[in-house]
Amino acid sequence: MSEAISATVSAPRKIDLNADLGEGGVHDEAILAIVSSANIACGGHTGDTHSMRTAVRLAKANGVAIGAHPSFVDRDNFGRTAQHPPLDLLFTQLCEQVDQLSGVATQEGCVLQHLKPHGALYNQAANDAALGNVLIRVIQHCNPQLRLVALAGSKLVKQAQAANLQVIQEAFADRRYNSDGSLRARSFADACIDTAAEAVQQTISLVEHDQLRSVDGELINIHAETLCVHGDGIHALRLLESIRSELITRGFIIAAN
Known about the structure:
Layout: H1 3-8, E1 13-21, H2 28-31, E2 37-41, H3 49-61, E3 65-69, H4 87-107, E4 114-115, H5 119-125, H6 129-142, E5 147-151, H7 155-162, E6 167-172, H8 196-209, E7 211-213, E8 219-221, E9 226-230, H9 236-249, E10 252-254
Parallel strand pairs: 1-2, 1-9, 1-10, 2-3, 3-4, 4-5, 5-6, 6-9
Antiparallel strand pairs: 7-8
Helix pairs in contact: 3-4, 4-6, 6-7, 8-9
């Protein structure tokens, strides 16, 4: 191929599409045929050995990368209420969750690829250096090869990179954002996106322009390497089907990082 011709051939664009799974959602099996990465609940907010094993097996069958999705130990609130446990206790609890899922994965011939904190822990750690340090310590202790999935543009991204961790910056196709780049709190009725058209629009804005529009109408810059749809949402499967279809139509390859 001549230089002139090769210069006109652009490399295929790639995006990782992930979902939080093993959380009791009714569409996990169908979702695992769509996404490229799965964050599997490992007992803090929900999940047990059986649900972990089921999710791992389904992910393996579909060639989906798997990661741990640990949480504050708070099943009553599904891990979505702010917590302030002693940091040493939290470290121990998170390590127990990651180790339990890692053990199941090993038994099934799989290896964990990443760690993504769940719910309130995810949001608090995004800008709380003390919680961020706990997550860093968990990875260093359990498996230094794990990549940390963190809110794109958050303080945690730079904190983890400074600790020599590999970081995957994440944005959400099914959540609305505040103008500072944080997620709209679920206490607001408009926190979640539940129509395929809007989820697709936000996805395309993110992957093609590194931007999205906040709830206040402000255009904010967000560069993400992975996009998430919450697997427990009642519209999750429909949103993911529409998002994947549009991404493929636009020439994107759906693949894990």
